[in-house]
């Protein structure tokens, strides 16, 4: 079995701890290689958890990738995993004993808060696990803690720096600290890039997995909307939000997809796309052969002549052609200027209305909470300006969302407009040209893929002249994850671009 699409992890050495059989070096590790170390007696789940806790203690003060940890709970779960491994004679679940960081908008039963970076949400407790957390636990995962993010998934107000929240502080790009970590799943990407956890989970409305994956040089999968449950997740838009993975991507995707009665409509429709036998069967090193890839040259590849990006993408296209991909160049998406303008497309109006509905429903289901409505959160922010930036940046989107009144005529018009932009845009271009995927740099196609709930995989593609990472994105129509995995894995193995950050600035 070849290794899955993954983040290439930094060199780590487990220190003391009786649970670790011997000093163990974890370099560019995958879930498969960790399990081999478990089986060989070189590592235990407790030893792995201890390793990550030390790593986080070392790096997080500078990088702000992690908001909250549950070391007691994680070590207890790791001990149970180790005991099960010693006593079991049958195959163990695919993520057995593997530590996971959840984005801070995903609820888990126990002591961890799910606050979306907001001080107003501290102390809220869910009645149970989010749907994806149930699946992670069933797959054997060990919950380590929560990853930082842009407050309210970048939907508090305009002008707030990406990766900042009152709870987590300012997340830092581990490659170039002055560069953006980008968008709301930034902590999940930073943590994965710097090996603070074996697995990290993010969410995306419009760019929140794709962009941080690109800027932090990690693989990210944004699944088809509904392929993963949003029950127990604080989301912005049921139409666009999806829970995805920004680490050891295919293994994790396989573990978290499926029907959930608490998110019935979306997950029932998307369950038809789950392939029999799972997703790992599509880790095909020859997966680019005969695939038709549409290059959206005019829409997204606008790099200056002679730039690093222009050179790198030209080389990548040559590699893909030599492997056997069919590149259909110079394609355009109709009305791309409208799609990229959230006001013109209707996306903003719909998100404002959906956010209030989704948030108030989530708050109503909590076992305990200091706030029970979006209105309560706005009042809290007005009364408790204890973080300077809370006052500096305001809460315009929250206030605008509170002023909405459900899905009325304007919102229905926005839905119809978005549907039309999808059918006449990416769907028509892909069907007319018989494409398996579209290709774009980084997260540039985020809105194109967001408004229809389409999937995407970003893979490290290179580093700009200033050292900031950038990615290549393969996107497709709903349910096209098997093709995208084949394409992305084949590209990753052919290019092997990813290199770890030096982290000198983080540990000095």
Give a verbal description of the structure.
With 508 residues, this protein is of the alpha/beta class. The chain has a single domain (12-507), classed as Amidase signature (AS) enzymes (Alpha-Beta Complex). 40% of the residues lie in helices and 12% in strands. The protein has 21 helices and 15 strands. A 6-stranded mixed beta sheet has the order 9-14-15-13-11-12. Helix 4 links the parallel strand 4 (99-103) and strand 5 (142-147). Helix 2 (45-63) runs antiparallel to helix 3 (71-87) and helix 14 packs across helix 17. The longest helix is centred in the last third of the chain and has 24 residues, at 409-432. It is globular, with a radius of gyration of 22 Å. The two termini are 39 Å apart. InterPro entries: Amidase_dom, AS_sf. This is Amidase domain-containing protein.
Per-chain topology:
Elements: E1 12-13, E2 25-26, H1 31-40, H2 45-63, E3 66-69, H3 71-87, E4 99-103, H4 131-138, E5 142-147, H5 151-154, E6 164-165, E7 169-170, H6 186-193, E8 199-204, H7 210-215, E9 220-222, E10 242-245, H8 249-256, H9 264-270, E11 292-295, H10 297-300, H11 308-323, E12 326-328, H12 336-339, H13 342-345, H14 347-365, H15 374-383, H16 388-393, H17 396-402, H18 409-432, E13 437-441, H19 446-450, E14 456-463, E15 469-475, H20 481-495, H21 504-507
Parallel strand pairs: 4-5, 4-8, 11-12, 11-13
Antiparallel strand pairs: 1-2, 3-5, 6-7, 8-10, 9-14, 13-15, 14-15
Helix pairs in contact: 2-3, 14-17, 14-18
